Amino acid sequence: MNTPRLAPSAAELAPGVAVKRDHLLRILRDLGGAAVAFSGGVDSAVVAAAAQMALGDRAVAVTADSPSVPRSELTDARRLAELIGIRHVVVPTHEFDNPDYQKNDGARCYHCKSELYTRIETLLPDLGVPVMCSGANLDDQGDYRPGLVAAAEHLVRHPLQEAGFTKADVRAVARAWGLPAWDKPASPCLSSRLAPGLAVTPERTERVERAEAHLRSLGLRECRVRYHEGDLARIEVPLAEVARFATDPVRGDVARVLKQLGFKYVSLDLDGFRSGSLNDLVSLEIKTRYSLAGAGGPTG
């Protein structure tokens, strides 16, 4: 059995998590081969590492490359795949050519994942593996996740869910395996920063990428620049940082840089950082149409 090329960790797993880890490895081994949709985040990193352990050369990590993927994330994914020792393929995806994706009506993630899974499906014969896998865990089932509907339609397996992994379990295993992504904050695609109804364009996602890079240069690990109609940037930072970002010199610096990037208005959200806050603007109709219940639930 192959193991990741990682430094050993002193972290120990609780007995219940160790049972889930072993179950995960069995699930992947029984697949006989798998292409893992690999973003470089902690969830897909654990699935990729487990697939490499269980399947060796019959495991491959597939990473999408499009204007919605920050360049830094693509670089990190390449480095992490090399560290794990898994075969790695980067594929261009063309969701930005799809008018249904561009209009950003709340179902954008469905169209994005449909494009990704379609691309991976066409590669499966050349990759020599029979199944696609995602990094979805049990905690993902409680949120609005149209991408899971696309996964169900493409028969994508969710090994972490099948093995009973919560997000906390994923981080525990990642730490025990020495994966550097074990404590990495979630990093959804850049298009997720655009408010529903605001058309998705490469220019806007690049503007968000550069704005968030500036915020991180000021010492933040978690932050969002939400892009609203009228070229308004709504900045979300952790509550403990709100006062600093509302006070000069940071306030003036951030306003100046974001306006140089093309934002006309720069606001600071006093409620602080909230993952998925733009989901509140998605209509009930769209949420119902792209719910797992409406799609019949994930397969496999």
UniProtKB/TrEMBL annotation:
Classification via InterPro entries: LarE, NAD/GMP_synthase, Ni-pincer_cofactor_biosynth, Rossmann-like_a/b/a_fold
GO molecular function list: sulfurtransferase activity
Gene3D superfamilies with a match to the protein in the record: HUPs
Catalytic site positions: C189 (nucleophile and sulfur donor)
GO biological process: purine nucleotide metabolic process
Residue ranges annotated for the NAD/GMP synthase domain, each copy included: 35-95
CDD domains per the UniProt record, alphabetical: LarE-like (cd01990)
Protein's recorded name: GMP synthase [glutamine-hydrolyzing]
Organism for this UniProt entry: Fimbriiglobus ruber
